Protein 1
Amino acid sequence: MHDRTPKHELTDSERLDRLRLIRSENVGPRTFRSLLNHFGDAHTALEHLPEMARRGGGGGAGRICTVEEAKAELAACKKHGVSLVAPSEAAYPARLATVDDAPPLLAVRGALDVLARPMIAIVGSRNASGAGLKFASTLAHDLGDAGFVVISGLARGIDQAAHRATVETGTVAVLAGGHDRIYPPEHEDLLAALLEQGAAISEMPLGHVPRARDFPRRNRLISGASLGVVIVEAAHRSGSLITARMAAEQGREVFAVPGSPLDPRAAGTNDLIKQGAALVTSANDIINAVQPIMERPLALAARESDDEPLDFDTDPSERERIVALLGPSPVSLDDLIRMSGLSATIVRTVLLELELAGRLERHGGGLVSLV
């Protein structure tokens, strides 16, 4: 696997400013990147947040993380053995750095060299069958012996089986909460064991207790860091199918293990196979599929083209035209550009201002809606 992403290790002041920016209200990964691309550094972006939120129609700027708060978080991370790394730094998983909404700072701990190795995700039902648990364990073990790192979500069922089978060869747990808020609690011992040869990653701050909406966010990290995602068991409308969808959107390979038509836990995986997912009966099926991918250079082509310059001299009437086209129903950026008759630069700028004002919600597939 060849990584052509230029590496840049952050200075202490850059890390502090970037932490303040991503911890500020209404700033998510995509917004963070737009601000950094336009202003050049997080410190300058922080200075412009209040004015941009005002133009977006907010009563005032969203809460901006203070220097003292950021320093306190960095100190707490150090105490827990957690490092906050940026996509440009060597410790950041290279494939995760290419996804559109990669965390601007990723909290990592453990044997960090494992994050540079090729990863395969294995996920599935929390209420797994005995056959599913056995197959997940065998598959993970064989992938580990072949030099791959198994990445999963530390959940009950298939996830924990995959982790346990690769404790010795290296496995990565992706956490939905902070590093000090492990879910489920009974897997704290498993996490401690896998950190010897593996690692844990999270985009959440210390102290963050995972909520239901945090698990889909976590799942995009599982798929984003991997070459491909294997679904072992999944019922209809399960979280594992969300991971499969995210993997496909990110350009990752999707694999599925077939199961009995009589077992509802196999309904989702069988449907994935019907929809074109690669059928898996052994580790060789996965290894043969990803081998050619590993030889290709990594690129940032999967990202949205939001590296374009922003235009903060937008006429108020143009801003009103864009806002009038927005509503509670999600709409795409391309449709907004077409319907408004304005340039992509102007539309992107207005959307950014609305987001910083807390008035815009982003959805999957590049859709946005007004809050």
Note: The two ends are 42 Å apart (CA to CA).
Protein 2
Amino acid sequence: MSKLPNVTTSIFTVMSKMASEHNAINLSQGFPNFPVDERLTQIVSRLANEDVHQYTPMSGYPPLLSKITALIKSSYSRNIIPETELLVTAGATQAIFTTLLALLKPNNEVIILDPSYDCYEAPILLSEAKPVRVALNNDYTPNWDKIADAFSEKTKMIIINNPHNPTGKILNKSDFENLEILLEKHPNVLLLSDEVYEYITFEDKHISTHTRTKLLDRCITVSSFGKSFHVTGWKIGYLVAPIHLMKEIKKVHQFLVFSVNSICQIAVSEYLDCVNINEISTFYQEKRDYFRSLLKNSRFELMPCEGTYFQVASYANISNENDVDFCKRLITDYGVAAIPISTFYENGKDLKLIRFCFAKDDFTLEEASRRLCTI
């Protein structure tokens, strides 16, 4: 009997496979197609010939732990203890998976806000816990009354994703105040904050859980160098948690991966000395603005994009098809792949919205937009 009977091939795999079969431009999967910073590739090239290929300590390469500590301090004015509150992980997905397996028990309930990324539910189910899905408002703001109503005596955790994939929405100060009020009423509930796009926000500044002192003793915050430095295939991230939670997380981590890719850790550690991580948001804002300008004369209605490298668009003026069928026809008839937003909902809620990834070079964005403007 399957432990995950309802889990099938992900929509990302389906759309990418279709894009390949039809030679379509793939704006579905969230990976950049432009070159990595030459400074980073030069570091890796040099390190390949050095003695850096054996295990690092379980928690992470010590100089990298120090650099991350300094990064959190400079970005959010938070002081952490790297030896006890920080863990380098094999990407954010492994960080989330490890956290959920370590902290959940059978029959616990976990609040997930839909539309939600697809990596949350599986480890909850494998922990014999129950995901409780609560839909965001149609403008993707949280409905705190509905969220509060979903809490029960079995609630162990709530997961937030900020900046939000797939919608590009970011939480504001009022959202965090409501979250803090809610969690004050439920002192035993933990918070898992997925912040992999924290350095990709635009007009409004990202508010991190690192800055919310009321939440720090119960919060696990997850970050991704793969997203921030355009090296998604490296699968390198990190999480921060208070010591009483980190002790349990490390117990699972040591048997799941033990330690993370040594050369990637050392390369990122050196790269942090020469890169200005705050320039990333400017880079992607230019990408976002250019892509939106290219689609200005299309029949798509572009939704606000406050962060991430995803642009949500409505096709309601184009077709009455459901979003999955529309995305398939977009590939076969127009040669562009996107992701249907309904697949991020438990109940398949269809608002005639699709997601494009604009983390692509200008030529790709220009050709994709040319095709989209012919619809």
Note: The first strand starts at residue 25 and ends at 26.
